[in-house]
Amino acid sequence: MDTFDCLKIENQLCFPLYVVSKEVIRKYQPFLNELDLTYTQYITMLILWENNKLKVKELGEKLFLDSGTLTPLLKKLEIKGYIIRERSKNDERNLMISITQKGKKLKEKAALIPEKVGKCINLSEKDALKLYELLYKVLYNIKEGE
Amino acid sequence: MDTFDCLKIENQLCFPLYVVSKEVIRKYQPFLNELDLTYTQYITMLILWENNKLKVKELGEKLFLDSGTLTPLLKKLEIKGYIIRERSKNDERNLMISITQKGKKLKEKAALIPEKVGKCINLSEKDALKLYELLYKVLYNIKEGE
DNA sequence: TTTAATTAAATTGTATACAATTTAATTATA
DNA sequence: TATAATTAAATTGTATACAATTTAATTAAA
């Protein structure tokens, strides 16, 4: 056990976090291709399926993404016809994002995806719940300290 | 409980995985700035501190990254003077990556980083171990099914 | 009520990621 | 051995991410 053991890749927690996140997202891709969505576009639609209309700011807070990422992404979703972008009448600084009928319809196809990806991840119910709990604990701790 | 509950953001496992990965990486940034490294460059250096010399192919397997990501990244690390890129004499297809003295020296500064980031993440030893175990279980399961 | 702060998106610039293709080197095969 | 198949990087093209800055709208303060 030396001073540098903390730098061994096998002792990192961040590394498997980073790799697993990417690999899980990669597993989504073939299914998302059928909906003409990227992963980031997909989680944006997840929020919009639960909230028909909201500000870019609110979307960013829910997704942990800033306008630098969302602005071009939302323009692409608008071109695909899944959402509408329009300035708020009350406050022109806010851009309101709302879902279209075509966007709502996507939800039916998307509903089949979580189970398919779940099979790839292949965790027991208990392990999945524990992982979920630990991830949100880390997220809470990180954000708490800011 | 309806058909679409599986699409609620709160029921996703992938979403906190994606968010936590990004947020943890963001926590590294201020510390890594002092070493003039990005997070991806940092994990590349982690591998090189353990393996003085290896092929881009091997590096990619360890990091779960392909040449499209590594080629430009390694060129940047070479410009910074941390690594050397040279074709293998035996097989010119292979590009050998080796660490320089300057690159080795970075290790001393880097050794302070894991503890600092650990404080932000702030998990108990037990929770951290469990998270580690679950992440590698997922990684194994995903890769198994390919 | 002008001017100063604040706020929300958009923009700019840099650095990944990765699928798909290309290039060059090596190996296997007819 | 000449050709085909394989392999490893590099390249191309698209889509994030995010820090930092800019722009435009709104609100607060002198």
Rg estimate of chain A, integer Å: 18 Å
Order of strands in the sheet with most strands of chain A: 1-3-2
The CATH class of the domain at 12-111 in chain A is identified as Mainly Alpha
What's the tally of helices of chain A? 7
Question: Helicity range of the residues of chain A?
Answer: 55-70%
Estimated structural class of chain A: mainly alpha
Task: Explain how this protein is built.
- The structure is a homodimer of 146-residue chains.
- The first copy, chain A, is mainly α.
- Chain A has a domain at 12-111: Winged helix-like DNA-binding domain superfamily/Winged helix DNA-binding domain (Arc Repressor Mutant, subunit A), CATH 1.10.10.10.
- In chain A, 64% of the residues lie in helices and 9% in strands.
- Chain A contains 7 helices and 3 strands.
- The relative contact order of chain A is 0.10.
- The interface between A and B is large, with 57 and 58 residues.
- The first copy, chain A, binds a DNA duplex (30 and 30 nucleotides) through residues 22, 26, 29, 38-41, 55-57, 65-73, 76, 91-95.
Give the helix/strand layout:
2 copies of one chain form a homodimer.
Chain A: H1 14-33, H2 39-50, E1 53-55, H3 56-63, H4 67-80, E2 83-87, E3 95-99, H5 101-110, H6 113-121, H7 125-144
Antiparallel strand pairs in A: 1-3, 2-3
Helix pairs in contact in A: 1-6
The structure holds a DNA duplex (30 and 30 nucleotides).
Short description:
The structure is a homodimer of 146-residue chains. Chain A has 146 residues and is mainly alpha-helical. Chain A has helices at 14-33, 39-50, 56-63, 67-80, 101-110, 113-121, 125-144; strands at 53-55, 83-87, 95-99.
